[in-house]
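Design request, tokens follow.
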């Protein structure tokens, strides 16, 4: 079965899996919400009094805490492990992640950040897919008064994937993103957000490199003091620079629920569904993932 499965796989499924679980290249990000909407630092796109959820989770101490460290582990199931169109196979897998970050505000409307992250993916039935990933990212976010709270971000990310068996590199990517996001708070417990982004990537092997043009929107609700939920939708247009004219339309929707009994620990449950349609039919697929996770994080 593994030989048949991978014979019909037109691209490396690990690349798409890493793209789904890596910290999203969007204008806001919260560690621990893989395959989930951009929920970090949402308050920085609004006013101090009206920002959604900031006082509850993200501003526990008025003193600057520019450094962060985190570790997390998640268990997931998928109905299409190789992201194929015909005869999809299900599997279970673990994702273990550790990393550190730095964020500093230079002015009221300007912020810079950098993150280093390493992750290991281990599959149950199809161990041929086991791999590791390393992500290094740096960006600058600007909230100009003229945009009435919208945030503009420029970000660079480096990604490397290696095999689990012999740590052989099989994928490397450099990506530059430009994005704009707006948060619309309804109350201190509810908020909607939407954004657009363009990302240009340069990959090795070259056929995996693509330009991404995306729009997204979401809704976040603070259910209790320690529980929040996010519903998120994203549409992306993928143009492969060295893919013989390949262009994809990709749609994803996800729901995530997070329980944080303490400032440094959080439990999460999430579901994710994606549909990819390409002008080259071999790249069409549908996939559903669901899982639970545990995260420990510190700020200092």
């Amino acid at each position: 079965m593994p030989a048949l499965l991978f014979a019909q796989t037109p691209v490396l499924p690990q690349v798409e899996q890493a793209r789904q679980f890596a910290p999203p290249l969007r204008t806001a990000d919260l560690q621990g919400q893989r395959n989930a909407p951009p929920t970090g630092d949402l308050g920085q796109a609004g006013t101090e009094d009206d920002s959604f959820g900031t006082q509850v989770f993200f501003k526990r101490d008025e003193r600057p805490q520019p450094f962060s460290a985190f570790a997390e582990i998640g268990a997931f199931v998928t109905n299409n492990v190789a992201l194929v169109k015909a005869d999809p196979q299900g599997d279970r897998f673990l994702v273990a992640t550790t990393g550190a970050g730095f964020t500093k505000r230079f002015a009221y409307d300007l912020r810079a950040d950098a993150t280093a992250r390493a992750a290991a993916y281990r599959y149950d039935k199809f161990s041929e897919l086991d791999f590791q990933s390393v992500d290094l990212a740096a960006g600058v976010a600007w909230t100009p008064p003229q945009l009435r709270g919208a945030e503009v971000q420029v970000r660079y990310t480096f990604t490397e994937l290696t095999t689990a068996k012999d740590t052989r590199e099989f994928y490397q990517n450099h990506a530059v993103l430009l994005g704009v996001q707006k948060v619309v708070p309804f109350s201190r417990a509810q908020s909607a957000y939407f954004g657009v982004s363009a990302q240009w990537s340069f990959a090795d092997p070259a056929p995996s490199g693509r330009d991404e043009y995306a729009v997204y929107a979401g809704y976040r609700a603070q259910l209790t003091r320690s529980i929040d939920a996010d519903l998120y939708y994203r549409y992306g247009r993928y143009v492969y620079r060295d893919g013989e004219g390949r262009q994809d339309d990709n749609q994803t929707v996800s729901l995530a629920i997070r329980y944080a009994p303490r400032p440094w620990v959080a439990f999460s449950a999430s579901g994710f569904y994606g549909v990819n349609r390409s002008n080259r039919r071999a790249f069409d697929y549908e996939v559903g993932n669901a899982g639970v996770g545990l995260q420990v994080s510190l700020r200092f």
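Comment from the thread starter after seeing the answer: thanks! The CA atoms of residues 80 and 88 lie 5 Å apart.
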